[in-house]
Specification:
271 residues; alpha/beta; Collagenase (Catalytic Domain); 2 domains; five-stranded mixed beta sheet; two-stranded antiparallel ribbon; 13 strands; globular; binds zinc ion
Length: 271
């Protein structure tokens, strides 16, 4: 999920993660700058008389929580527009986001930053006009959102697939109740369509396009690496502990467009 500010994430639980919840501390943390070349780190038998360097504790411990968790290793990203808001007066914004996703969404540099979590690439595949109407109220329940997805999927010639991340762009004046309740500006979720999981994200409207791109990319990272929101790559303590959360709203440029940074456990930092 994306919070409006990263203050809470930056200060939360920084001291209690090492080896918590029964997950062994990651031996790679002994050498946070080793760039993954770790083979010799374990070969301590022949240096028994040298004091071993104190392992540098990393403030977070992102691990795959279950070896059978779903992962989207080569995501296809679709933008879905809620209501006609982006069709007419706000077509300029729509075109901006389409251009942005077309650029970084097809750039290996964007996806490579997730390679330590098994993501090998990804692509932007287009947009869908999700619904013509605003919704039953200004506050959308999760059921309202999945009902709209189901209605649209029922009318598409190709069914949804499990490698796609459906990023729903909400218009100004319409919010997800879940986001409002949690003070989020976006979240990702999964629901079942015809007995198969559909992974989607909800992006709250902002006129600040940098913030919006940060939210979109934050949720893409998390939907890819922790699709079901619990068993994929995350810190073991639960809550706001996915790879997007620790770098919330910190942005960097990929080509011409700002994207959010993502947590690297290997480097113990945002990149
Ligand atoms: Zn998040």
């Amino acid at each position: 999920m994306t919070k409006p500010s990263d203050e809470a994430a930056a200060t939360a639980d920084c001291t209690q993660r090492e080896g918590s919840q029964g997950h062994p501390a990651d031996p790679r943390l002994d050498a946070p700058h080793s760039g993954g070349v770790s083979a010799t780190i374990y070969d301590v038998g022949n240096v028994a008389h040298k004091p071993r360097a104190t392992p540098a504790a990393c403030i977070h411990n992102v691990q795959r929580q279950s070896s059978s968790s779903p992962l989207i290793t080569n995501p296809k990203v679709v933008l879905l527009w809620w209501s006609t808001y982006f069709w007419d007066r706000h077509r300029t914004e729509r075109d901006f986001y389409k251009a942005a996703l077309s650029a970084f969404g097809n750039d290996p540099a964007f996806w490579n930053r997730l390679s330590e979590y098994g993501v090998t690439g990804g692509s932007y595949v287009g947009t869908i006009d999700l619904t013509r109407f605003g919704g039953p109220s200004a506050s959308l329940s999760e059921q309202d959102i999945t009902d709209a997805l189901t209605f649209r999927f029922n009318n598409l010639t190709t069914p949804p697939d499990q490698d796609t991340i459906y990023a729903i762009m909400l218009p100004d004046g319409l919010s997800s109740a879940y986001d409002t309740m949690n003070s989020f500006i976006g979240h990702h979720q999964v629901y079942q369509y015809n007995g198969k999981p559909v992974y989607y994200a909800v992006v709250e409207y902002s006129s600040n396009t940098t913030q919006t791109l940060s939210v979109i990319t934050h949720e893409i990272y998390e939907a890819a690496t922790d699709p079901d929101g619990s068993t994929g790559y995350r810190d073991a303590s639960g809550g706001e502990d996915e790879v997007g959360d620790f770098c919330n709203l910190q942005t960097m440029m990929i080509g011409m467009y700002p994207v959010q940074k993502v947590w690297s456990q290997k480097d113990c930092g945002c990149k």
